[in-house]
Amino acid sequence: MSPDETAASGQGSSAGAMLRRAREARGLTDQQAAEQLNLDPMVVVALESDDFASLGAPVFAKGHLRRYGAMLGLPEQELLAAYEGSKVQPDQPTLVPKSRLEMTPVRGRPKGPWVLGGTLAFLLAAGLVAYVSEFGVSLPAWSSGELQRKSGGAGVDATTPVAEVPGGAPPTTTGPATSDGAADPAAATEPLAGTVETVNVPPGHVSISLAFAADSWAEIYDGSGKAVLYDLGQAGTQRTIAATAPLSVTLGNAPTVRLQVNGRAVAVPTPPAGQTVARFTIDPDGSLR
Predict the structure, then answer these.
(1) What is the three-class DSSP state of 8?
(2) How far apart are CA 250 and CA 280, in angstroms?
(3) pTM to 2 decimal places
C-alpha cells in the first residue's frame, strides 16, 4: 500500500491528523505546503492541529480542507466527514476570523449623555444665581417682634397699611393706639414726600420710612451687620425703621418705593440701566451714598 493510501485509509483519525500524515508522506514541510496553497503557514498549522475555530466560520475551514486535501490527494468526502465528527468546531459561527476579533478595540460607554447633562445642570444653576441676584428670595413675613428678636433688638420695624387718597394727596399712617383703644394724639400723620418732619432719634441712629406702591423686596442691615428688615414689602404698605447707622439698603423694585430719612423725603437712587435693584448706604447724618 502506498503512503497516500495509508494516510487516506486511517479510519477514526481527525482531519488534521490525516492532512499531516499525507503531507509527511509526500516529504513536504508545512512551509512548502503553505507556499503551494498560497496560504499563510499559520493556516496550515491550524488545519493540521484541528484548530478550526481560529479560521473563522465553518465555510472557511471546509474550503481550506478541500484545497489542502485535493493537493495531497485525499478523498474529499472522507476528509469532511472527519471534520464533521470532530468536537473542535466553533460553537457560534462568525464571518470574522478569531485573530481579527482579538485585535478589535474595546469601546467604552458613550460620554455624550454625561456631557449634555453636565451642560444643562450648569446652565440651570447659572440661571438660578442670576434670578436670585436680580429679584432676591421671598421669605415668610416676620412681625416686628420676631424681627427685633432675630436682629438682637438692633432696630425697630413698624408696618402700616397706606390708604389710597383721592386727588394724589400723600398717604398717611395712623399712630399706635393707647391702652383704652383711642389713637395716640402724639403720633402725627407721616408725610411721604414734599415736606420735612422732625423725628427724634437717638445719637448714631437713623430713622427711615419706606412706602411701597408695588411689591418690592427690601433688605436693611444696621452698622453692626445685623438684619433689621429682610422681607417683601407689599403694595400699599409702609415700613418704618430706626437703627444704628450706617444702614445698608437693598430695594428689589426701587422705582416703586418712596423713601424718607429722619422725616425728610429723599429720592431713591436710580438703578443701573435695565435693572430695578437699587443698593445704597445711609450715613449717620442721613446722606445717601
Answers:
(1) helix
(2) 7
(3) 0.35
